[in-house]
């Protein structure tokens, strides 16, 4: 399989180039050159397959023979070693729980698949692959956990001093081994600039085999297509789901569109955002006007210029009408989101995090017009990751902290203090 740039379809690269380099030089995004629906033999028994089995068939269909079957099967089985259950919380309303991975957010799917794919693609190279990543929150934790102990790789994480929560910091700084954390005396933007400066240095990049674990890496999207199949198969046969997706950079929604291209029957997509509503506004009037982001309680969706929008446009051949026939966009403010957290708890007993709550609001709006549709809302993270907000709405002690997060509190932090000079990074290469 070859991959093209959304800015230039004549620019083709192989999987290794697309995954290790992450971004084409023309600033587009890589896309598979063809996406062919899964064959009849797959549809005969897909409803009986486990999540990793579905994952293997989906990945194989997208990647073709870029990775041999045995190796691909191993990558999928090792990466997706946790479940993504669908929980029915009310009539026609289901929650797809994507927080059962090690760092309690759906980003574990993408990061774990990417880590193993990168290690595989780099297996014959003498030099170790060095992943440089700047983080302001969840991405760094997912990436650190995903690459921890993966042979032939190491990770250097830059995070802003005082800019991440205590437990997030522990997720970055307690693993040790091939994971190095740099606590930067500066902002998140400084961290990103430091990473970028080192990437722009071609000599350094080649000498140390530098790569980025950027969220727009195509290998992060592929495993996110798996769980749409796994969720749809759990509905009664013949029912086509409406997927409701709390969205920021729109990676999740783009992965859903890949699943649809592979032949998954989906009735409709609902893109749910907080007040950072660039895509809902585009769907309403056809004008794409990114804005600076505004902070909200669903902060993983505080994105003003969604990075995967170029892929969405590409999948619809830049046809606004076609996109809005398939995707609806709805945006909600923090007050409504807080009310939704309380209402869901009171009416169903389910504890939903602020991102999922935005999805609940969108599903309710959808049901106003189409009450019989089966809505599946993606619960993108475990509520314990947003403890202050949850406790404000539901009371102290209302949210259980899973052991894999709670146990980090007592582990010692190991981070190197550095200034915001890009050269500081080179001491650790
Ligand atoms: C990253 C993230 C999102 C946004 O997902 P996109 O794929 O960027 O749209 C939503 N919720 C949580 C909890 C996240 O971590």
From TrEMBL:
GO terms for molecular function: threonine synthase activity. Residues 97-367 form the Tryptophan synthase beta chain-like PALP domain. Its EC number is 4.2.3.1. It comes from the Bacteria. InterPro entries: Ser/Thr_deHydtase_PyrdxlP-BS (IPR000634), Thr_synth_N (IPR029144), Thr_synth_N_sf (IPR037158), Thr_synthase-like (IPR004450), Threonine_Synthase (IPR051166), TrpB-like_PALP (IPR001926), TrpB-like_PALP_sf (IPR036052). Gene3D superfamilies: 3.40.50.1100, Threonine synthase, N-terminal domain (3.90.1380.10). Pathway: Amino-acid biosynthesis; L-threonine biosynthesis; L-threonine from L-aspartate: step 5/5. It is an enzyme of class 4 (lyase). It holds the Pfam family PALP. Keywords: Amino-acid biosynthesis, Lyase, Pyridoxal phosphate, Threonine biosynthesis. Its cofactor is pyridoxal 5'-phosphate. The keyword Lyase applies. It catalyses: O-phospho-L-homoserine + H2O = L-threonine + phosphate. Residues 2-79 form the Threonine synthase N-terminal domain. NCBIfam families: thrC. Belongs to the threonine synthase family. This is Threonine synthase. It comes from Rubritalea spongiae.
